[in-house]
Amino acid sequence: MKTIYNARWIKTPVSGDGISVQFTKCFDSRNVRRATLNVTAMGVYNAFVNGRRVGKYVLAPGWTDYRHRLQYQSYDITELMKNETVVAISTAPGWNALYRKDFCDDVDCEKEPAIIASIDIKYSDGSSECVLTDSSWSVYSDAVVYSHIYNGETFDETAVPEKFGNAVEFDYKKNILIPQQGEEIREIQTLDAKKLIITPSGDKVIDFGQEITGYVRFKIKGEHGDKVKILHGEMLDKNGEFYNANYRGAKAEINYTCDGKTRVYNPQHTFFGFRYIKLCDWCEEIRLENFKAVAVSSDLRRTGYFECSDAKLNKLFSNIIWSNTDNFLDIPTDCPQRDERLGWTGDAQVFCKTAALNFDTKKFFTKWLDDAITEQKEDGSFPHVIPGLNWDEKPSAAWADFAVIVPWTLYLVYGDKELLKRHYPMMKRWVDYVDSVSTNHLWLGGEHFGDWLDFSPETTECGGKTDKDLIACAFFAYSTELLINAGNAIGVDVSYYEYLIAEIKSAFIKKYIKDGRIVCDTQTACILALKFGLCGLDEENIVKQLVDSIKEYGHMTTGFVGTPYILPILSRYGYSKIAYDLILRTKFPSWLYSVEKGATTTWEHWDSIKENGDMWSTDMNSFNHYAYGAVAEWMYGNMAGINICEDAPAFKKIIFSPETDERINYVKASVDSQNGVILSEWRRGSDGRITYTFIVPENSEAYAYIGGKEIKLSAGENIIKE
Ligand code: BGC
């Protein structure tokens, strides 16, 4: 049992909006053989031992709902100990600021920065000691004068630490404490400043050339008391002016006071989503080499790579990787910049397969799904965001279905049955919830987001044109189907759900298919029916309905719900050429439209910047939302043709079925799976013939489908000429 459970929760004796403090403890520590610091906070912290920063975790301890779970970290601090040791834990509100009346329905966790810690010491003479947090710890003011997860940070180099008093002990649950479970958040890349821009109105703006999540690190030597003020933005507007009206309530600013010495500073307890910074106040000559953009993210191992002969598609893929990186910050977030940055469940289910190909996300998603288990409501439903914020909400189809889709996807990619077993009860309770609120096997009249942000010219509703009940019924079927698959994989009885799925399907077909057509005539309605096997005898007709609609509009009209499946569905039914038309399209609406407009991450809207250069609006316009990036699933799975087989997860069986297109000369993709590296490449030679290269891991069974033929592949490299 870790000693941290013996410690007392302590908090600051003073309160204040955005207050950041140092909890300190000084003790004798001669002849130490080994020392370990276990610590966590309600808020975010940086730990220092004798003035040296401990570990590399940024924004520790990450974000969980403190009512249920809180990760603590253990650091080996042996090397930092002296005869007398000072431990200081600088702590700010971090995500805890969101648990307040102004943002959510208040919850019962501590509102001011609070920590709990233990220091386990073993001495050379064999004795040991444990220093625990209690009211003997002191609380000092911090150089971080104000800290807010959305508003930014105020830092004063001239500040002299002032003792606020002793820490205040308080009673709070300790059974919420768990060892670090997810990936640590780390600084993962440092980018140089690319350009100093003086805007038409005279603003001084630095462009880092890439939108990131993180912060700026600058070097400065101002006079004692000189002030710096920096704002963050994702875009310039059509006049070339600095723009961040889309951050809504998030001020996202740095206010910094110089002390006359040369200093290197970066914010300690907050982060921003940005590509540009505006120097509102800067007290010396602007030298680009004094500015770096530091990208922070959960420390995920990159596993997926893709390139092809089309530079714009390569840029799209790069944007997808960046939006993935930028929005995997301990939890999967919708966006990193405005006053949101929340674990929206719908976005995560849409993107989880792409993410699991791009990166090893097993640990990351496991932690988030374990968060979800604790947040499942008594009736089996879920909050819209995990960690939940106590909103008064009814579950939305396609959002709450994450509870089945994400665990099943993890199983397909990583093949871990134990994990699936752990998540199965949650999956089942969700399907049971929908079953309990459905009428004659149809989920009607719920409160749903719909095909969020679709692009049907006929509607301006965010929820799109597709009937929300139809979406709900379709996802009821899909989740039930996946639950059956999961139950079969782990060997539990699913006979009730086999009965249920048959009923849902026939109820769906009866209600939504008339005269060979989906009654709600949208692309998303057709796609869902096809993807989830809800067409009955009218599969071909509904494929035609979909294809006709794409031809009629000349483009996709899909939103968050339909977009991830549209290209895979077209490919599945032999319309690979149309799928290529859509992905290669550069005119609005399309994926490459944003690339042509200079995007460096994927956008929330197809038209976050409109054709005339105007912004979509200030209300809800993120330039860093990963949902539409789910198209990478098709890039890996169809362009390169690397497919996961549902009957042999974790790439134990691989079907390579690359789809070539005359507009593309080569495609190369690889996935460093748990089973080994998988690679698929095709290249058109000068004679017009295509050469395929496949790399198959030792323990995989693999086949290639080329020109209608099935070819058994062997482990290692396989080269096949058309
Ligand atoms: C978020 C989305 C989310 C949605 C719910 C938005 O504000 O940014 O990505 O899924 O709300 O519809």
Low-confidence stretches: none
Give the CA-CA distance, first to last residue.
Answer: 62 Å
Percentage of residues in strands: 25-35%
* Distinct small molecules bound, one entry per kind: beta-D-glucopyranose
Which overall shape is indicated by the principal axes computed on the Cα atoms? globular
Question: In DSSP terms, counting alpha (H) and pi (I) runs of 4 or more, how many helices?
Answer: 13
Helicity range: 10-25%
Kindly describe this structure:
With 722 residues, the protein is α+β, with helices and mostly antiparallel strands. It is 24% helix and 29% strand. The chain contains 13 helices and 38 strands. The strands form eight sheets. Strands 11, 12, 16, 17, 18, 19, 22, 23, 24 and 25 form a ten-stranded mixed sheet that branches. A hairpin with a 5-residue loop joins strand 34 and strand 35 (690-696). Helix 8 (523-531) runs antiparallel to helix 9. The mean pLDDT is 96. The structure holds beta-D-glucopyranose.
